[in-house]
Amino acid sequence: MSSNNIKLLAFDLDGTLLDSVPDLAAALDLAMKAMERPGVSEAQVREWVGNGADILSARALSQSIEIDTSLTEESKREARVHFDRFYAECGHSKSTLYPKVKESLIALQQAGYQLAIITNKPYQFVPEILEQHGIAHLFVDVLGGDSLVKKKPDPMPLTHLMSTQQVSHSEMIMIGDSKNDILAAKNAGVMSVALPYGYNHGEPIELANPDHLIQDLSQLPELLTHY
């Protein structure tokens, strides 16, 4: 076991461990074209991602981070079905781990920490992506955006993980790149660590007031020595 009080490290996926926007954008663009709607760009998707596939699809229909209130539930459902199909078909071939992610995760696991994933991405896509990048075996648990009734920024995924892994609030840290991650940590009463390079709707992550900010995951072991 790790030498300090922290036992469990929960990581967001998209924008934290993985740059997934190229594949997300390609799938969304195909979904919009299938519905004869305007296509979307990578730059747009970088600002829209982070709240789960339903909201991402609705933002693509709206061509805005603000969802058009005149959209029908039927059109939103149709967009999500198209997105899921094209995202599954893409093979996630354009997604890449951020620098220093894999070696940092391995080092943290070898140091005795339990690692987990809490993402708002639909669970069906997550295991394959983790396997593809050779990191699936590092995690004791993986929660997707639809694994539970509620997703980040609600604290439910974090409190569920604390319960299943039998750790207390003071023994867990949430590591992410967006205000959803930081808010989820605050709502669950656990420490938050933010990374500045991911997707946060175009806002600096500092505005979400994380407990700590690191530049990349290689700085996490040093930070953990203080707890």
From TrEMBL:
It comes from the Bacteria. Mg(2+) binds at D12, D14, D177. Its cofactor is Mg(2+). GO terms for biological process: carbohydrate metabolic process; DNA repair; glycolate biosynthetic process. The active site is at D12 (nucleophile). Pfam families: HAD_2. Pathway: Organic acid metabolism; glycolate biosynthesis; glycolate from 2-phosphoglycolate: step 1/1. It catalyses: 2-phosphoglycolate + H2O = glycolate + phosphate. The keyword Metal-binding applies. One of its GO terms (cellular component) is cytosol. Keywords: Carbohydrate metabolism, Hydrolase, Magnesium, Metal-binding. InterPro entries: HAD-like_hydrolase_sf, HAD-like_sf, HAD-SF_hydro_IA, HAD-SF_hydro_IIIA, HAD_2, HAD_sf, PGP-like_dom2, PGPase_prok. CDD domains: HAD_PGPase. Its EC number is 3.1.3.18. GO terms for molecular function: metal ion binding; phosphoglycolate phosphatase activity. The keyword Magnesium applies. Specifically catalyzes the dephosphorylation of 2-phosphoglycolate. Is involved in the dissimilation of the intracellular 2-phosphoglycolate formed during the DNA repair of 3'-phosphoglycolate ends, a major class of DNA lesions induced by oxidative stress. Belongs to the HAD-like hydrolase superfamily. CbbY/CbbZ/Gph/YieH family. This is Phosphoglycolate phosphatase.
